[in-house]
């Protein structure tokens, strides 16, 4: 039972749950970026370079022979994966940059001095009255 309790304590810690949520959101974000690159970015780029579809760019090492499929280097898919990575890295960079700017603005914002309590105000008045009595000739 001790191991089960230790695992339960580990699994429900905030960091583990936060990490799991981050991984799930990251996977969904990866799908969005892949669709963005494949469906919106690559078609115009392919059109600009003469209608080339990057996913079709291959080097055939060995042609298909009957039922044996061809052996190819699919460098077009690799190029698309690199573009996916660059876009994800750029999006993360921009997000971190915005978060850092917000943190700096929060740190730079001057904090107002605390408002004195009623007791502090009364003590201040008593101090001032005592000073005034001691300064009389």
Automatic annotation (TrEMBL):
PROSITE patterns: MSCL. It comes from the Bacteria. GO terms for molecular function: mechanosensitive monoatomic ion channel activity. Its main location: membrane. The keyword NAD does not apply. Pfam families: MscL. It is found in: Cell inner membrane; Cell membrane. This is Large-conductance mechanosensitive channel. It comes from Pseudomonas jessenii. The gene is mscL.
